[in-house]
Amino acid sequence: MGSIYLIRHGQASFGAENYDVLSPLGIQQASALGEYLDRLGIRFDRCISGDLNRQRDTASATLQRMGAGEQQPAIETDPAFNEFHADEVIRAHMDDLLAVEPEAIQILANAASHRAEFQRLFQYVIYRWASGEHEKQGLQSWQSFVDRVRAGLQRVLAQAGKKDHIAIFTSGGTITALLQLIIGVPPIKAFELNWQIVNTSLSRLKFRDQDVALASFNSHVHLELLKNPELVTYR
To answer: What transmembrane ranges does the database entry give (predicted)?
Structure first.
């Protein structure tokens, strides 16, 4: 059987003007992952990333620490593995959000200093969106996002060798969509798992032809071994 390693990007710049930039901690997380994989002797036959900066830079920082002196696979990009547009989802549901939280705009504008409140509001919006019962004109639906991710996975499987080890550097929402597809949980249950996905964590899929199974989820031993709780982040 072959293996697909789903790797969430390192910590990005939450609360900054441009979220899509790895923080110094995010680079450290990716480097730690590369060193850990190198110690395990894991080598990738292919490396695929979404085309977001935080995904590609995580891939680059990880590969730099693997197999010193060895040729690493080129980082291919496939936007099917990009994250959904969370800011667009929030804006589309803003009127509904303000109805239950009149100070939502202030909380969202100062998310870095209101992390717990931001998560509460973000979860409310995401659950409405993922339910499929509150569609908004012009906004990509959760099902459409899942279909995009499914198409990306099918492309990977169609091109894979039987025993390939393939890395996919992606984001939490994309991993959530894949969990829904592979283990058959409803979207809300998949998102309950989403909130637990650690930056640079590994989730492993085993595949034979088009058959795919979840072998492990959200492993972040590479961070735990460093005995620094600050390295374990979720956004």
So the answer is: none
